[in-house]
Amino acid sequence: MKIEEVQSTSRMQRIAAHTHVKGLGLNAQGVAAQSAAGLVGQEAAREAAGIAVELIRSKKMAGRALLLTGAPGTGKTALSLAVSHELGSRVPFCPMVGSEVYSSEVKKTEVLMENFRRAIGLRIKEMKEVYEGEVTELTPEEAENPLGGYGKTITHVVVGLKTTKGTKHLKLDPSIYESLQREKVNVGDVIYVEANSGAVKRVGRSDAYATEFDLEAEEYVPLPKGDVHKKKEIVQDVTLNDLDVANARPQGGQDIMSLMNQMGKPKKTEITEKLRQEINRVVSKYLEQGIAELVPGVLFIDEVHMLDLECFAYLNRALESNLAPIVVLATNRGMCEIHGTDFRSPHGIPVDLLDRCMIIRTQPYSLEEVAQILAIRAQVEGISLGDDALPALAEIGGRTSLRYTCQLLTPASILSLVNGREKLTAEDVREASQIFLDAKASAALLLENGDRYIT
Ligand SMILES: Nc1ncnc2c1ncn2[C@@H]1O[C@H](COP(=O)(O)OP(=O)(O)OP(=O)(O)O)[C@@H](O)[C@H]1O
Ligand SMILES: [Mg+2]
Known about the structure:
Number of helices: 14
CATH architecture of the largest domain: Beta Barrel
CATH superfamily of the largest domain: RuvBL1 DNA/RNA binding domain
Bound molecules: adenosine-5'-triphosphate, magnesium ion
Shape: globular
Strand content: 15-25%
Structural class: alpha/beta
């Protein structure tokens, strides 16, 4: 199994509407402040989420499910993102939306399975024999291509590595030269080369080359201590899905036809059940030997009422397996039909799954809370508010929805610019809300003159 060069497959998180949320805003005792870390109100739900985070950190939460329920726009998605912030980047957090499972190419359970495996992390600790140091020399040796043709091939590459103790010159294989190029290694960088696999890792640029700039992309590291050739503990965080992807071999041979066939195939189907079982086996061996440590993360399924019976049955089963993350579900549905059936069930979720869930409710916001959230949003979006803007916005928020009002901020600020004002006023807000209708106003208009539309 390859683990040296596993590429991370974790996804970029969707943020835009939730950029202001930085965490749950709880104190050391787990009590929520009225407004902290970008979150306002909703104290009970935040404290409950805080306990879940504590359980996840102490690894007692695997295989359980949390369900966030509440009316639209009461902060369910925001809360789950806050949970992911609290967990930090070392614990995998895999967000998905219920409707993602519907694809004409990939089976529903396959999508769920992939996301489950994205949410289970593995911390692999290995003592490795490495050559580490600052690069003092990097000279590829070239020779005529023995197969003829133009150009030259690299026969080997000479690398000089310096530590505090001394300098060593290594003669390395041409394939390592390729990895050196891939990592964009230059003279003056600190690198290590793994002795048995030849994998190259660039640690950063040596301190000696630090420049005077205040702001730079480069990370500077001190000159490594000890010998160039040594044993070093290397810690790598991967998810099970990373391992699946890294070990999925492209099928078919090297001839044109099979290459063409491969192009047509979606890459996702390459990961077979057999491969997964194989990886599970190796992983359990690692766990037994203590080389690796399991880090159960969070699988967040938003709009969970979009799943159908097949998916729910799969979820039930997957939750019981020994390699399970904690599953957080969110829905804004009340009593409704389970997707694709006529069965009615609370939240559109079958009762047997509901039975496994701990349910957290989010409450509607008061007018002051709406105003507070809007003030935070305005700050994040760089909009300065006049004195009368916030009450006007909150009033609209009370009539319509929090989300609509948040979205109104930017158009209103553009209107105020056009009107030559520096701060947003109540007038701009009202003007914007007349140009852009909210759902209720649009529905009311439809009732009035629905006969002019095609039905
Ligand atoms: N307590 C809060 N503090 C700060 N911002 C909040 C809070 N609750 C919600 N928001 C913000 O309000 C907007 C709507 O909330 P969110 O998307 O989380 O609602 P939701 O409960 O997921 O709704 P839906 O059921 O429609 O998915 C988001 O921009 C969110 O960041
Ligand atoms: Mg949501």
